[in-house]
């Protein structure tokens, strides 16, 4: 097994890459469509759906974007299978989770950096006339802020250090074993049913936009299908989530020893 001097920097590098990718994902999904990071063509040069399906200048970037999405979904799903997990654990040991996080971040970086907008394509909806042109973007902006705050809050329920692969390396260096071995059966059951703990909030970010362009529709549709297939919660999981959230909020609201004195 690799020494701790190698394991710790590798896990930290994976975490930093994932954190930076998360920040970039917020810009890609929220700031760019809401603040107009990509110039859009006017409605007079946009094509209808029938014409768009026959226009290579629209179909080519859509096919490229679809390939990027399938690459991300394929990587995210394939590396989560038991077979690949066993192989990566065999060769990378305690860094198996960090490897998964790194590959996911790289796949998402490719998706965001090489995504092709389709400004001439048809749109499903667009807020153009007043007062909608003013109030709809503002409402979307507020809902995106609320959604991202909820996403960060929900992560309190989950073991974020373990999701990022840091806790596995920390426990290994200290000789504490595998963190999952210390989880309760209810927690393991929840993790097996819920691969994406912020499904509803991500769907809000994907769909609630002032203008739903063709490429945005493709992005939202495929990720919605993927999130839906990966979601299998039942009432037992929801009760466990609620109990864990209440416990974490109680711990955060409890005064510290120094404050009580």
From TrEMBL:
Keywords, alphabetical: Membrane, Transmembrane, Transmembrane helix
Signal peptide: none
Gene Ontology CC terms, in alphabetical order: nuclear inner membrane
Spans through the membrane: 58-78, 99-115, 135-158
Membrane topology listed for this record: Multi-pass membrane protein
InterPro entries: Nurim-like
Predominant location: nucleus
The UniProt record lists the keyword Transmembrane helix: yes
Similarity-based family: Belongs to the nurim family.
Protein name stated in the entry: Nurim
Species for this entry: Chrysochloris asiatica (Cape golden mole)
